[in-house]
Amino acid sequence: MEPRIVVLASGSGTNLQALIEATRERDFPGQIVAVGCNRPQAFALERARQAGIETFTVDHTEYPSRAEFDAAFSAEIERHSPDLVVLAGFMRILTPEFVRAFHGTMLNIHPSLLPKYTGLNTHRRALEAGDSLHGVSIHFVTEDLDGGPVIAQAQVDISADDTPDSLAEKVQQMEHVLYPIVVRWFCEGRLTLSEDGACFDGLPMTTPMVLPANDA
Fold it and tell me: What is the pTM of this model?
């Protein structure tokens, strides 16, 4: 039976779209069984509906605390019996209880070359620091915000005339390439999380796999 994937999103869902298109390939080893969102008007929900994928929404504004929202959201996710939970532009800080419930089966994508620039405004911060390279990281989710073991990264060159918006566009293009690759690895059973960190083909990953800028 193919691994069951639940994708969580908060916004327009461009990474979701890339995953939908990837899972439509005949040889893809997993299927997206549901898309969940914390914002009822998020376009990600429409993308899922157009693809014939079940959706669910748990509006975070209706809950008095983060813990209560996470408990309700977790229950909705578990209803779909996922083998993998993929955060694709899901803009909520998760409680430790939520993260522990999906330990080893939850991936996140972050627009920087972690450990650089955790949190928000990563493109502006890379430009202000005078960096020559920027990029995207995919990591296992742990209780440490943007601090879980990094699996893979893709780099982009920063040009002298780049702005936060132009840099965001470059990075987003690489997100759409890299995320389906990593999700495939997980569904194939090649990617796991151990006590020592991420493992690939049964071996500990001492460094992330990196797609260099000149290959992007």
Answer: 0.96
Which member of 60, 103, 110, 134 is catalytic?
110
Domain of residue 160 covers: 4-215
The tens digit of pLDDT for each residue in 66-79 reads 999 999 999 999 99
CATH code of 95's domain: 3.40.50.170
* 101: its two tokens: 């419930």
Count of the separate structural domains present in the chain = 1
Q: What angle do CA 1, 15, 134 make, to 5 degrees?
A: 125
Identify whether 80 is a catalytic site residue: no
List 135's β-bridge partners, or say none: 155
Q: What is the pLDDT of residues 124-167, one digit of tens each?
A: 999 999 999 999 999 999 998 889 999 999 999 999 999 999 99
CB burial class (10 A; 0-12, 13-18, 19+) of residue 58?
Answer: buried
> What pLDDT shows up at residue 216?
47
**CA 108 – CA 183 distance, rounded (Å):** 10
